[in-house]
Design a protein that fits this description.
Length: 111
């Protein structure tokens, strides 16, 4: 394995990486246990960062593996999408049970 160290700016038109063995799409599998938001909040309150993401202090003092971090961030984005879908489903249930329409199109604008 060859190593290269750059103490400065790296400019490139493209950077290619080796194929990734476990891309984050696993979040969308039916057996993925999406944490409850209360668990996420508890972890954030206790640790001041997201689970599986290094703390700010850790990032300041340790190297960050870019591909690994990109995969973790993509996983968090996918989890956010799942939380949004769940929230939308709950809103629709509430709309139906109260005969309301809470979709953005029907809400007043606050300009």
């Amino acid at each position: 394995m060859e190593n290269m160290a750059i103490d400065g700016v790296l400019k490139a038109n493209r950077i290619l990486t080796k194929p990734i063995s476990t891309p984050p799409g696993f979040v969308f599998s039916e057996d993925y246990a999406l944490p409850e938001l209360s668990e996420v909040k508890h972890f954030i309150d206790a640790n001041k960062h997201l689970r599986a993401i290094p703390s700010g202090n850790s990032m300041e003092s340790n190297c960050i593996e870019m591909i690994e971090m990109q995969m973790k961030l993509l996983q968090k984005i996918e989890e956010l999408i799942l939380y949004s879908i769940k929230q939308d489903e709950r809103i629709k249930v509430l709309e139906k049970s109260f005969g309301l329409s809470l979709h953005c199109d029907s809400l007043p604008s606050f300009k």
